[in-house]
Amino acid sequence: MSEEQWSAAFREILIRHLPMAEAMVEPDAALAGLGLDSLGTVNLVLELEDSLGVSIPDELLVRETFLSAATLWTAVSGLLMEPGHT
């Protein structure tokens, strides 16, 4: 997976919430290593939900979802493909 496979909106939101990230985030880079902490995770989830029009269910609010940009995009893109998503 490469960053080109993510939506531009996802990339922009992700970068805003990673204090130590540069303009590009490697898919397998640890989000915690790029400065994502627990408060940052909450803010990231809220912005993803608001900006992308998804609702991240409780079962996805686990450490594994936020390990890397790739794992987070897998979760978010699955929600974007659900029936009824605009």
Automatic annotation (TrEMBL):
SUPFAM superfamilies in the record: ACP-like
Highest taxon of source: Bacteria
Coiled coil: none
Domain named Carrier: residues: 1-80
A matching Pfam family: PP-binding
Protein's name in the database: Acyl carrier protein
Naturally occurring in which organism (per UniProt): Amycolatopsis xylanica
